Amino acid sequence: MSAPPLKQSQGGWPAEVTSFVGRRIELSQVRRALSGSRLVSLTGVGGVGKTRLALRLSWDVRRAFPDGVCLVELAGLEDEGLVPQSVITALGIHDQATRWTPETVAERVGDRRLLLVLDNCEHVLETCAATVATLLERCPQLRVLTTTRQALGIAGEQVLRVPALSYPPGDAELQPSGFMGYEAVALFVDRAGAVVPDFALDDRTASAVCAICRRLDGIPLAVELAAFSLRVLSPDQLVQRLDDRFSLLNVGNRDALPRHQTLRALIDWSFDLCSEEERTFWARASVFAEHFDLEGAERVCVADDLDRTVVLDAIAGLVDKSILIRDERDGRVRFRMLETIRQYGLDVLRGSGHERQVRCRHRDWYRGLVEQMQLDWFGPDQTAWFARMRVEHTNIRTALEFCLREPGEASAGVRIADNLRDYWRVSGLISEGRRWCDRFLEGDSGASVRRLRLLISASHLALLQSDLWAAVEPLDEARSLAFDLRDEFCDLLLHVPEAVAEALQEEFPQAITTLEERIDGLRRSGDLPWFSTALVVLGVSCSLLGDHERTTTYYNELLDLCRVHGEKWRRSYALWGLGVDAWRQGDTLHATELVRESLEIQRHFNDYLGAGQCVEALAWIATSERRWQQAARLFGLASTIRYETGGRLLYFFSGYHAECERKAHEELGDGAYARLFEQGANVGLEGAIGYVLGERSVKHRPKKYDATPLSRREREVADLVAQGMSNKQIANGLMISQRTAEAHVEHILVKLGFMSRAEIAAWVTEQRSDDTP
After folding, report:
1. What is d(CA 285, CA 292) in angstroms, rounded to the nearest whole number?
2. Residue 637 and residue 683 in contact, taking contact as beta carbons nearer than 8 Å
3. Cα dihedral 435, 438, 439, 444 in deg (nearest 10)
4. pLDDT tens digits, residue range 100-129?
């Protein structure tokens, strides 16, 4: 089976909230550069529009990349070591068994024809360069587009400097409509119309607008900020204020680049237009990574000089001035700043001498959120907490980084990292969780209970990736530390990962003994996450030993525990375990009900490993019921999930898998099994649960289409011909030369025995009409 495609969905692509103005020449240049180079870097000063250009270009050329266009946003990332994890997360890969390095990322990308967009690389430049270099070396079909103030500096990189927008010279004599041919003027007029609906470029306003664009050197961010100021100023007043600002600026740093001077001056001026409360809030809110909500803003930004009662007014004022951008996600309003605006706020905050206090409040807010999440995790609010932690993930990273960087703050970071153990597991971020644990264990070597708890969590995360060797050291230190500290509670807990290690080595009787000797203590401990983990290990181990009575005892206890507390995630594992046991007892109807219920719960989390186990179990059940075609499709889907998630824990049940798959293969025959298996494999991770639960069907290309003499590229060209595209349009869409596009069309005509493009289009339509579920 070929590797499944990695596609950035339209729903996940950043929406353009304002119109895209100009950049026709730059779009063409970047398109040509990408057709000739596998790495293109867009450089330029902050605010010049690198990100906007990259996003528009990537969206325009998306059809040229069958395996998707993927955006990796790095602005809020501080730990360079998490660049590979950020790439994997953006790609939508849910592998929980791999530690992410440039090399392991390259293994997963493989030979996919993919465009990877790395946005804002300058502050993590070294790791970005290493990651991209490895990917380009090992992934021959990959192309990379970066935005950065400094080029990566690696072999094969084509650097394109993004210029400012065009603006009219001072001696230009044109009618007002003629000035609209200059991009900066067109941008100003477009944004001004959003602020003052009846704004128009006429004989009265044209001169001032042109002067504004010249004084701002055509920098898009500066032009937009100036246009938004028309709420309170006329164009003539704006020109005068800019003149005053620059006459003052010229006395200062003459060594700075003019565009740096201009942008800084423009933001200075926007800052001065704000009230004192708005300026204070702007600076303090800049510690948030990417975005924040009102509750977080009140906890982090409020102090003696900024009362809670004025925070809402300050936010409203900054939204009106376009300093803050309002977003609404799942009924909850959040706010964000453009990165250049945020960096300006950080500079102001550092200059105020209050940065440490604000960052401590930021850290405390997220530590409190994480600790409350852990307290509530085994309960009815679990899915809500999971969703919130996903939204706040970048801010949690920022808080953890502060704890590592700031002397004396490591202990708080240790508490945060330990409390995130289950979140990392459920969200598919085990590799990232292990990295944070390792970094804090290296930086906080004192003998303390908090270190002991983190050692236990670190060993457990390593075991979840079947990394036995990495788990040995923290387990050994945890045993020694628990003895030294006389901590009976932690000594009890550490036997859970010890039992997991024994199970991974197929020492199931020993794993059962380890836990059964301590299960009463775990039951009384009150630590429900660890107790529930012990019940899962006991259930799995007893099941694999064929002990039906103890298997159902432990899984039913887990199920009852989850029902009492309203917990969902562990409940899904109890249902799955009971379903597998019912199947082994021959009750396939009840087994199906239990496993499907388990799968229904999984849709609320990112635990594709659990979903994969459910699909696998349903394939076994289908085999027992002689539903051979469905079994083959489910085996195909399970194989995709295993590949994407690194589902090592299914190794325990390889015997069940092998026997059931053998039976289905024998009944269907080689050809039919392969075709049905491929249908299931083509579903993909995101649609897996809906497909298995009967909410969607899968269309599969008929064999006669697959068997055509056309190559993959020629089929793509044929599809574009059917869409009515000319050879030039096909060349632009696929980023190939027009001559190459013409040659592809000629080859298609010859291979299919056709005389015209219309015959190609009719043939493609016919193939599509033959699609069958």
Report:
1. 8
2. yes
3. 150
4. 899 999 998 999 899 999 998 988 899 999
